[in-house]
Amino acid sequence: MSKDKSLYLVAVDGSEWSDRAAAFAVEKASKENARIIFITVIPWSGFQPLTMDEIAYRPIDKGIEEDLAKKNVLDPLYDKYKDTKIDISTEYHWGNPSEVIHDRAKKLKAAQVFVGRRGRSKISDLILGSVANTLAHTLGVPITLVP
């Protein structure tokens, strides 16, 4: 991985919104000769609200959850873009997505962060917030919210 290239950190979660953010970042990186890290964060908190699907299908074993994150989120994106001339890598982490992405962007000195904007209701955003909204207000690094 070349350290002299700008780094784009792309937050992904397997959703159509994060796929669009990845595509936009790859397009921009190819024009600007930047490198990309696709990052996914596996939330693990007893205090974080979960959807019914997450409750029903959440594996108990963290190793299984990590394998699913790689198989369902990171590997498909890497495979889709690996033949481009862009330096692409992937990483996954455990924790609060907003906090982890914020910390990684700062530590890696990301030139820009790309995040898909989910179409959640205004009430959900007010009560729960969103990763995109939190990062947009706290990151201090240029951020692109992709619709």
Automatic annotation (TrEMBL):
Matching Pfam families: Usp
Superkingdom assignment: Bacteria
Transmembrane annotation, as ranges: none
SUPFAM superfamilies: Adenine nucleotide alpha hydrolases-like
CDD domains xref list: USP-like (cd00293)
Residue ranges annotated for the UspA domain, each copy included: 9-147
Family: Belongs to the universal stress protein A family.
Protein name: Universal stress protein
Species this chain originates from: Kordiimonas pumila
